[in-house]
Records
---
Amino acid sequence: MADPDLITRAAGGDPTAFQALVERHRSMVYRVAYQFAGNHHDAEDITQEVFIKVYRSLDRFRQDAQLTSWLYRIVMNACIDHRRRRGPVGGAASGEDAEQQILNTPEERPDPETRAYAGELGDLLEAEIGRLPQGQRIVFVMRHHQGLKLCEIADALGLAEGTVKRQLHAAVHRLRAALSAANVTAGGQA
């Protein structure tokens, strides 16, 4: 069943339709929340909060908008609210960085040295993504981890597409500079 049909049925009180929406979109909501929060516990809390908000406001959802854009906006607001409730936590890169690891395993099995380097590079890159300013980080994640188009990101965040482009450009520039400062090259350490 398509999202619009599920939304209509769920807004009418059908719990099965709402459960189907949750199951269909939960992983996307969790990934965004995890990227923002940096740990499983907070990401789970944010994900639950998002779906409570979705349930309470389904009757106000405009069927002419994309559900994923609407969900992204709700996730981002929930992440910001969560951060405010927790207060300042001493920067984005904390001890929770250990939980954020990228597994860079290509199709072919590389030699152990290459695999070790890829893991270190993934760890370094993920830590640097965590250090990006909030706006740049979420735009980068939505574009490069979620694969969204710039117009979809702009719509989801309520921003002009030019603002999204500037945020993305600034994020990429910062990441390149950080990798360069760490003396990292594409094929291995310099």
---
Amino acid sequence: MARTPRQPTTPAPDVPATLEANTVGSAVTKGRRTFLRRSGAWVGSGVALAALGDKLYGVPSKYEAGVIRNVPKNQAQYISAASRTPLGDLDGIITPSGLFYERHHGGVPVIDPLQHRLMLHGLVKNPLLFTVDELRRLPSISRIHFLECSGNPVYTKPYGKTASDLVGLVSCGEWTGVSLKLLLDEAGLMPGAAWVMAEGADAAAMTRSVPLDKCLDDALVVYSQNGERLRPEQGYPLRLLLPGFEGNMNVKWLRRLKVTDAPVHSREETSKYTDLLPNGKAREFTFYMEAKSIITSPSGGQKIPGAGFVEIRGIAWSGHGKVVRVDVSVDGGSTWTQASLQEPVLTRALTRFRYPWQWNGRPAVIASRVVDETGYVQPAFEQLVGERGVNSFYHNNAIQPWRVADSGEVFNGNG
């Protein structure tokens, strides 16, 4: 193929430079007029042109203004409250930072990172005190994991309308921080060390006991989420991340780690976050969130426009590792068919699943159930009641059905 001749960078000898400049200027002016005319046509047709740089921190389109966290109207007080992720409006496995579910026990503290310190003491040879900048100088780790509140949903029969109402206290993000094992190795563990007490700097001084094995495995002291510094409601400037463990153990606004020989039996691991069984005993230190899944589309509050093809979509996760299979039922659980998993499938992270369905326009009940890499199968609610009775409040990972009416409207199948 012949090469295109290179264009001269200066005017040809027989064309005056001033003439060429005037010609170019006229062409530019004409081009600008054409652009302005076209721009006017765009604006006239309903397409507005925003000024560049008018929002230096990006925000969603105004047409997505309704996609926000879900705050229950019956919360007794704001200082001990929660807001839920709008699961039915999201795609993918990463939850945007502004939509990440949030739970606090004593308000959201405002902490100056330059004044904040993390103390590491107890059964260690060299007690340490870290600034945030000192932690950021250490080797960093980034991983994708979910977080879930243990009351997601409460153990009583769930009557919420939407996926967000029911299990919106789960989200997934990319976390960046320092390995807790690195900090413990630097401090030097003493004989008898078996637990680590983590304490937050919030008004509630949230305190939980963490088994040392977990601290030496995949635990992180986190300072960033989804590529930016933690949001205040997510624990800014530091939080603990314990992949797969119930949300309250991932202590936010982390200020103290004390190595001990036994759990401290704090309020949050005795009177709270335990499960009262029919025999009068309580399940304590359950730690890991069991495998769970939910269909997010079509789901409660949504409407199928008409009979025909519908792609059933949802999320699945397990605190014990990877999701290996998700089954979907479109006949109320009489039969189950394997759905497709969307890559990547990561350990202790949300996994998306899809299932093609030809809806015939008649009433139906749809549901999903997940199997994790340990072989555990997500149970029906009746199974949980059979094992734990009706006195529990936390750790409900039961199958969630949705009822599709002949109008295409979708309702909670437990209603």
---
Amino acid sequence: MPRHHQRDSNASGSQRQLRVGELVRHALADILGRSGVHDPVLEGHLVTVPEVRMTADLRLATIYVMPLGGRDVGDVVAALERNKKFLRGEIARRVNLKFAPDIRFRVDERFDEAERIEKLLRTPTVRKDIAGNSGTGKQ
């Protein structure tokens, strides 16, 4: 395989990193979905786990989370941080790895970015540009 293709595939992580990240994501989603964490903040929120990124050595998992509806984001992330030790142990039991990865939680801001783009597309100026381009056959 040419070098430039190999470099492009590593930009988002190796196949192993992606596979392990998905296993961790599914395990955590299952734990949170079954109310496996006894924390009043987490019990009052549905938390989605859209992505988990693993480091190349698989020792650190960055877990992106978003509470349903996007409310109380700071409280939910703080509750996950408080229960990090328990969650790490549960993930280690469910995902068979040589080492249990350290975990850190981050807010997934892709939803905010999608909302921002959607608002931009609805502005009169952009709608006018889109309507103008569609009638002329230009792109």
---
Amino acid sequence: MSMRKALGPILLALFVALCVTAMSGDVRAQTGGSTQAGDKDTRDDETNLDTQLYLIVATNQEVDDTKLPASLDGVIKQLRASLPFKNYRLAATLVNRVKNEGRLDLRWIGGPFVAPTSSASSGVTPSFSEFKVVRVKLARNGEGQQVVQMAGFSYGARIPIQTGTAIASNGPAAPIINYESTGLNTDISMREGEPVVVGTLNAGPSGDAIILVVSARRSQK
């Protein structure tokens, strides 16, 4: 009987020690998991993406330079198979860096997208463009592949269109230019580093088209 009384406190002390050890292990595991999650969030916060926007003009007119970047070979092959244009030229390339889950907003002045319709045109009439993305985000698709999502992708342009010619009695004829707006708004998802066609826009009475191609990949530095 005295041995049972002596063993009782010892067994109770061992039970309490085991419970304390188990609870300490759970706390360390939870703390370690929180630290790992915090490290991952920090790494994600530090990730930047390099984006490329290509503006390609599709036309049936002869163009001076039809050379395009090698990275667009697959895209151009796809376009030639689906669109009835003879030539493609690169009108602009925009390279920008944006933070993961960040936004992008650009405005710029460029040359005309379409060739003048009259020999009376003189000088260069600019075009005005705007490119926005509400959020650029790294994600994974249903197959587990890394993709880049662009929510609120928006491109707009004001294109100069010659609508007539003003004939002066004592001077040369001058073109009459009106600006027409065109644009596109969408949400897209693409594989990282793979250029994709976002859409095509009519560029005026010439029948030319502006083709939007975009790609994005994680920055190396």
